[in-house]
Amino acid sequence: MGALRLPSLAHLLTPSAAVRATSSGAHLRPATLSVAASLSGGAGRGISTQSLAKEAPSSPAADRKASASPECAVTPRSVDFNAWYLDVIAKAELADYGPVRGTMVIRPYGYAIWESIQDYLNVKFKETGHSNMYFPQFIPYSFIEKEASHVEGFSPELALVTIGGGKELEEKLVVRPTSETIVNHMFTQWIQSYRDLPLMVNQWANVTRWEMRTKPFIRTLEFLWQEGHTAHATPEEAEKEALQMIDVYKKFAYEQAAIPVIVGRKSRAETFAGASRTYTIEAMMGDRKALQAGTSHNLGQNFSRAFGTQFTDENGQRQHVWQTSWAISTRFVGGIIMTHGDDTGLMLPPMIAPIQVVIVPIWKTEDDKTGVLNATSSVETILKTAGIKVKVDDSEQRTPGWKYNFWEMKGVPLRIEIGPRDVANASVVISRRDVPGKPGKDFGVSMDTSSLVGHVKNRLQEIQTSFLQKATSFRDSNIIDVKSYEELKAVISEGKWARGPWSASDTDELKVKEETGATIRCFPFEQPEGQKKCFMTGNPAQEVAIFAKSY
Amino acid sequence: MGALRLPSLAHLLTPSAAVRATSSGAHLRPATLSVAASLSGGAGRGISTQSLAKEAPSSPAADRKASASPECAVTPRSVDFNAWYLDVIAKAELADYGPVRGTMVIRPYGYAIWESIQDYLNVKFKETGHSNMYFPQFIPYSFIEKEASHVEGFSPELALVTIGGGKELEEKLVVRPTSETIVNHMFTQWIQSYRDLPLMVNQWANVTRWEMRTKPFIRTLEFLWQEGHTAHATPEEAEKEALQMIDVYKKFAYEQAAIPVIVGRKSRAETFAGASRTYTIEAMMGDRKALQAGTSHNLGQNFSRAFGTQFTDENGQRQHVWQTSWAISTRFVGGIIMTHGDDTGLMLPPMIAPIQVVIVPIWKTEDDKTGVLNATSSVETILKTAGIKVKVDDSEQRTPGWKYNFWEMKGVPLRIEIGPRDVANASVVISRRDVPGKPGKDFGVSMDTSSLVGHVKNRLQEIQTSFLQKATSFRDSNIIDVKSYEELKAVISEGKWARGPWSASDTDELKVKEETGATIRCFPFEQPEGQKKCFMTGNPAQEVAIFAKSY
């Protein structure tokens, strides 16, 4: 679970308090917040939206932005990363707090990012031979108890249904925190012989874990995810599957989300409750904390032995199946926000962005208006036809400057401006979100279909590449090789990641965590050549491990 | 709720009993069931899968099929509709029973039908201006109590979480049965002025209703659905939206599912708990019972008044918003099964079918095998490239005859057979699932790309059209106009739908229900011309109503 420095909402939001807050009229929408209220932004306090509108201390940095367009102003990322994150989520309308402590409402703009993730992965899962299906979310309590380390890992986090249809239930029902138990219960009924294997399924679902310290997207009481579950005839096949799926996640992270994750194996202490081996992709956030962004577990025969999931092999022998499970959740949306972005707000990689291009038409006179709007509409059609996600902001209530700030804060990769002079020249101005000022602008781009489409597609590709490059060099400059525990402590205290040879005990690992707040994020697949000596014990070491503080 | 003649699983499946059943080795997969067990099929008893493998009385009709291919044999639809339905669900691997009473596991083949539904509707929802998002599923109990008729309608069906993270909760949490309350709680925070309206969102989610009498897909304790929620500035806009969405559902039913639903308005007694008006699409199942297949509610200001969801109008006045909600669920999958299909199993309309064409290669000698499999692979590629959903069944463990039976039972619209002679002639044999024997076969269809693709596409279109025509004439021949209560009783007792002028009281409506088992399914939008007299009271009537027994 890493260092617990996350803001706690627990004391602020009992359900009944939340209801009261609402009926007393606490409102969040930027357009109607007073400037002062919109600037309080929960800076550094991780407070709930309900309190956002009630308290009004302001930070100097935020005040500077206020004069321009208060609704778009977020606490600068360089001033307070956590406040920036919460501001971006609120102002860009990505998510909101639900009435029950620790729950989250995913708003359309945030949900559209999740849909981008789903669209990509869903295709990859099917290409690799998996079928979608759906398991019920209510699990008999007795199921959870069957696998010893599983119950130990999950029992403190369970939500339990005890009343149904007005009656006390004979057996408490667990609201699924993950589905390995019920999956095995069903697999025992579907798997008879080796011919039924491999069995490879996936579900897109909600899961519930009663977390004490929550943070939007990163750790919420209920979240959305996909969970893959497979059963195989041999340990080799299960291992191959677990590795294949962590590779699917890695490719997604690099190619779509522009997040240069480190792929590796978890330490024993950090392995999933019930797994033999856990593979992970670890991402470095903008504050250099690590985020576990996806995991793939080789479950061995742990669950199949607990549930009796057996098959008859080719020799007529009964054997327990070998299993995997793997998941990516809405947490990944938080990872995208915290990897990219700058002082003025969100920055979305083009492959993930719900809106890739925003068009802002500009006019002063009614005469100009018709021509500008016609050109806007034509440019919109050209880009949509080319498969580019376009949004036109032609509202008359806001100035172009306000719109620029607003869509920059929302992280739209490209902006197209169309004014009367552009119409006269049959050209447009294109601005990159990630390159401020003139260097990011292309003037006089022809409205001609092929040149416009080509230009926009090239720019989007450049931005995508640039995001990954920037994140990679940031990552690499913040991973430091260490040769001793003292060096590790220094590196961690600077907020960086430490990489060093490790063959010490679980107890030593716990000691590092207690003394520095850092955990082993993974033993990376990419290992340096040569002999290694454990920086903690001086004994020979097979591998280097990466240590970092994490979300 | 209609006549309660549905099978009850309640006494069979307490959670702990389910666990025992599994560990004692009750298995469902056709390939390993004994013939006798596979034929018990729960005929007429609506029993659970757990009991399927344990009891073995057989019906004569089923025995006849058994000699051919026991795993594919279902109770003929003409012999016992309910047993047929449960058999089809089990044998075609559409769904299975979950360990908790009344819950359902949706297996890949059944889930793929749901994905077809999702894919179509998701596009339509976005085209009509709605955005997807996600609301938490835990709702404070106090929310449910705020709207009087809502709590009355839903409180008997609630599942309640009372323990979270090992502690008794201060306020019980409802596992969402529907989301109007939490939606309004959030809308109060997002809606300030008329400029924020309309607000139009949708979510794909699971919902829980503690039903006592369950039936796979049709009524389960947990089910999947989409729920749309909108807020508008005027009652006219809300009404227009409610009508627009029932029309989206209607088009989906006709054009995709080939189900000729009747669209209309619910009676007061059958209106959604909390709605001012409920529109419905009512489908006639193969046993002539009605299925409410989708609903769209004009909620008026009922929830906005209960939750204080207000906006400032153009004149600066505070007003409550006007709302709608609308939903289609996994119940629709049950509707597709029960509308189409015949004695030998499922029949899926091509637009919905997860597999539109199954290819069965046929060979005897190893010499023939290579040529046949090459041709099969080439035909598969041609059809896939044309966007047709193809499955090749080249397993060597089953005979072609077994495969024919199996894929017919699974409802695949078209089968392509490729044998050595076909390879020699560069042609294939194509068989329609819905036309048995020679009349449904096309011999010597050329393997040439354009003629093969054209042929297959035409046949799929013909099947789609034929399904709708067949269902429409079945529906029309089973809706009978009535002029008196006596006539209605006669029609209902024959299992048909009765249509007659109605302006009687809610009490009279209840009387019809108690005496005949039929309810008002709807006041159809399509009304006969001319003056009408209520068949119950003799008073003038504005409209005819349709009465039927229902699921």
From TrEMBL, chains A, B:
One example of a Gene Ontology biological process annotation: prolyl-tRNA aminoacylation
SUPFAM superfamilies (alphabetical): C-terminal domain of ProRS, Class II aaRS ABD-related, Class II aaRS and biotin synthetases
Disordered: annotated span: 49-69
Transport among keywords: no
Domain Aminoacyl-transfer RNA synthetases class-II family profile: 101-349
Keywords annotated in UniProt: Aminoacyl-tRNA synthetase, ATP-binding, Ligase, Nucleotide-binding
InterPro entries hit by this protein: aa-tRNA-synt_IIb, aa-tRNA-synth_II, aa-tRNA-synth_II/BPL/LPL, Anticodon-bd, Anticodon-bd_dom_sf, Pro-tRNA-ligase_IIa, Pro-tRNA-ligase_IIa_arc-type, Pro-tRNA_ligase_II_C
Keyword field contains Nucleus: no
Swiss-Prot/TrEMBL catalytic activity: tRNA(Pro) + L-proline + ATP = L-prolyl-tRNA(Pro) + AMP + diphosphate
GO molecular function: ATP binding; proline-tRNA ligase activity
Catalytic activity, EC: 6.1.1.15
Superkingdom of origin organism: Eukaryota
NCBIfam families reported for this sequence: proS_fam_I
Protein name: proline--tRNA ligase
Taxonomic lineage from the root: Eukaryota, Viridiplantae, Streptophyta, Embryophyta, Tracheophyta
